[in-house]
Amino acid sequence: MADKFDLIVIGAGPGGYVAAIRAAQLGLKTACVEKWIDKEGKTVHGGTCLNVGCIPSKALLEASHKFVEAQHDFDDMGIQAGDVSMDVKKMMARKDKIVKNLTGGIAGLFKANGVTALEGAGKVLSSKQVEVSKDGEKAVYEADNIVIASGSVPVEIPPTPLTEGLIVDSTGALEFDETPKRLGVIGAGVIGLELGSVWNRLGSEVTVLEAMDSFLPMVDQAVAKETQKLLKKQGLDIKLGARVTGSEIKDDEVVVKYADSEGDKEITFDKLIVCVGRRPYTQGLLGDDAGVNLDERGFIFVDDHCRTSVPGVYAIGDVVRGPMLAHKASEEGIMVADIIAGHKAEMNYDAIPSVIYTFPEVAWVGMNEQEAKAAGIEVKSGSFPFAASGRAMANNATEGMAKVITDAETDRVLGMHIVGQHAGEMIAQGVIAMEFGSSAEDLALTCYAHPTMSEAVHEAALAVDGHAIHMANRKKRK
User: Fold this and answer.
1) Whole-structure pTM over 0.90, yes or no?
2) What is d(CA 383, CA 459) in angstroms, rounded to the nearest whole number?
3) What fold characterizes domain 4-154+279-347?
């Protein structure tokens, strides 16, 4: 029997590595198991987020946005850039360098904090034992506590089986070495819109096929409609109510069959990206006698503190209920490490922000107006367009709006939804407001720096009671 640990974490993604570091900081003897192998055959940390998700996609989004700015926007500012071109291979190399720096950084953090890194695939056995397998060799470790942070993988669908280089998932879409002329994207969710935006900016004719009839139903519909309009203006052809029924490879092209309200249709692409969601990764994770229960959707069943059905065994991140977001996983990891160390810890699941890193960005936290009304809550809301913002004008970023949703009776902030430049940064104001139980009046009485994009949030809060300064008000001051 190998060493015994106070805590063994399975998975070194943003949930697992954060949990491991926090636990070690709290004095627990901690190990973290990871099986991810990079192109060079080395074990790397960071999970989907750092290796093939959040970080590499943002590198491509930023590069492609700057390319579009240089093409179309610099001239308005008086900048004469001449003809610009994109070296896709160089863009990809930069993305890979960023990923390598960050994943290597986690290994350094483990060493600095005294976390033992175990290489291989982890499996939970009975009696809180963890089996680690690599290259045919197995070792079993004992732990007082286990945290499962195995993450998720892209969902595949039968009509479009993955075909190397032609039909790919989100991982494959980050590896194109040239811009496809005609690109299809199945799914108008966060990943589909981000990847579609990258290649649209670089010259692809992008068609997004979405089976649902509504666009971004989790976002307030005023913001969702504005976002759809802006993306369409940029060149994304988003087809709602388009259910993919089949595909065929012909002469290195992908012929996709789909059905909409008008009947059966076909469309041909050079590349197809399948972005229909992700599923929890539990393959080979649980031994037959582990005792950990899964729910009907394949997620590990946990309570509000991420405890599984086995005392001392926890699960966090994409493998459990709730939004599949890196920051949600990290906060759960911190909460669980604190609990294991004997501290009291809670997590507010009502105040988890979401961001879509298109341009402009889309960000939200809490309820949207339609959800609040469906829950029987009488709401008041205020919104403010960036077209009326001095900083937005200076930034050449006047598209979008900020919206604040409140309980009409108490004025408490129920949600905030933003589409605009830096929305992902501004949404933190809504998260903090909700975390402290703030009212719209609290935001309205706050002194915001001028000129900033965040002033739109201030004006939206003022607009809840018809008191916005820089737009025509429907209500008279009281």
Assistant:
1) yes
2) 7
3) FAD/NAD(P)-binding domain (3.50.50)
